[in-house]
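Final report, closing paragraph on structural work. Over the funding period we assembled a curated collection of sequence-structure pairs, and we close with a single example.
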Amino acid sequence: MSVRHYAGKKYIFEVDSEPVKRRIGVTIIAIDRASGHYSHINTLNAVLSQFDFKEEDPRMDESDWLLTPKEWRSFQATANGIFRSKRWLSYIESALDDDRMEGEWANVRPLK
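Its predicted structure, as stored:
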């Protein structure tokens, strides 16, 4: 398994990837820096809109995506770009604040 970390102001983002047969399983996790609450955020519209999925693609409803090697290369390039963009991080953190208010973030990690 491989984990890449990206730091925002309010959240830490993890992009977890792991080989699954001839594909790569990917999930994106956001961790609230203040509380340790976390959530898989692959299904948020703010995230989905950054990746090249067709509207009818069933992966859009999944918190883990299985990607082909070609899709994985494209995903990596996109993820590196968006998670290094201060503008996009500000946008996604605002969307995550709204998502947290809806009470979906029950999972907690101990903070280091």
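Helices lie at 45-48, 69-83, 86-101. The chain has a mean pLDDT of 88. We thank the funder for supporting this effort.
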